[in-house]
Amino acid sequence: QVQLVESGGGLVQAGGSLRLSCAASGIMYSAMGWFRQAPGKQRELVATITNGGSTNYADSVKGRFTISRDNAKNTVYLEMNSLKPEDTAVYYCKAYGRTWDAWGQGTQVTVSS
Which residues pair with 91 in a beta bridge? Predict the structure, then answer.
């Protein structure tokens, strides 16, 4: 059974930084990603990383956010710098393969202006 547990969200001022973590169990070396959903908006992709370490970012976060993974700890991270109020959302971790996906419960990130 796949389980993803996010942590690291919180309240930060604009321009600040946060680091999200997603600890996975029940899977090994799958592609993983971070998504976010703001109130009244659809869930959107933030960043993804393959099991080989290739990354992809939404244009809105390029140059500010960095996704990484530690396969030994089965954990994926999202380093968020230069945060903006429009980054406020619930951030979700996702693990996926060709025919399956699994989601974490989400962690709230709030950026005050």
Answer: 36, 107
Beta-sheet strands, E only, within 14-106: 18-25, 31-37, 44-49, 55-57, 65-70, 75-80, 89-96, 101-103
- Do the strands 18-25 and 44-49 form a parallel or antiparallel pair, or are they unpaired? unpaired
3-state class percentages of the chain: helix first, strand second, coil last, to nearest 5: 5, 55, 40
pLDDT 10s digits, 74-104: 999 999 999 999 999 999 999 999 999 999 9
- Which residue, among 49, 112, 100, 105, has the nearest Cα to 77 in the 3D structure? 49
Structure tokens belonging to residue 19:
């680091």
Distance CA 103, CA 9 (A): 16
